[in-house]
Structure formats: C-alpha cells, structure tokens
TrEMBL record:
Domain Type I restriction enzyme R protein N-terminal: 35-144
Record InterPro entries: HSDR_N
Pfam families, sorted: HSDR_N_2 (PF13588)
Protein name, entry field: Type I restriction enzyme HsdR N-terminal domain-containing protein
Amino acid sequence: MERLNLPPFACKIKQSGANSLIFDELRRKYVLLTPEEWVRQHFIHYLLLELHYPKGLVSVERGTTYNQLHKRTDICIFNHSGKPELLVECKAAHVPITQQVVKQVSTYNQVVQARLLVITNGLQHYCWQVDFEARSFLPLQEIPAYRKEEL
C-alpha cells in the first residue's frame, strides 16, 4: 500500500486466500484491505491517537439515506448528545479530491448535519466548518482536535 501523509500506526494485516485484510479497531474485525480502507484506517488512528477523539464517539461506515438511496458515511464522530459533529469522507490515495467529491460529501451532510466536514485521500486533507443557517462553508487550516467541552 501507498505511503500516506498521515502518521503511521501499528496495523494488523493478514491474508485470507488471495485477499489482504486489515484489523479495524472500531468494528473489532478484519476488513478487506482496499486502497480506500488503507486511508480510512490511517485516518481513524490519526483521529484517535493524534487528535484524541474518544473511540466511543466514532462510527465507521454508518448507513444513511439520501433521496431514497442508501449510502454509508466513512467516518462520523458524534458529540456526547449523539449528534453528528464531524463527517469524514475517505478516498483512495490515487483519487483526486475534486469539486465533485466536495459536492458528494456536502450532499451527504445535508442529511447527517455535521458541523465539520473533512475530505481526505491520505495525501491531502481538507476541512470545513459548516454554517447551516448561513448555508456557508468556512475552510479551516487544520482539523480540530477533540475538546470535551465542545462535544
């Protein structure tokens, strides 16, 4: 797998036939190691180990419905009241982050209603603060670290 612009972590990888699997600490199981999963697992560990988000507030591949279509959010962090706070969309490292990708995530967020949006391909990371009343996105220079009083 490709080296990413995220801190390395002690990942557990095993083979199952022709497939490589990586252990997902949050789902507590091995999952198929795809290029997107490689980015997702690195980003999860970045959120947990570097930004100090509690495991109990993080959800992976949670289902949501938009225009009668069933979608899955890559990573969603909830506040202590159970409201989505941060939505992360992960792409494989070879997938450029385009305006279409930004539109996809902001469309998901119309349903999720997270205050912060992050898009990453493991090499580039973009974060916005969403103001739903003003219908605006404020680009942030960095992804905010966990602060208990805010969540």
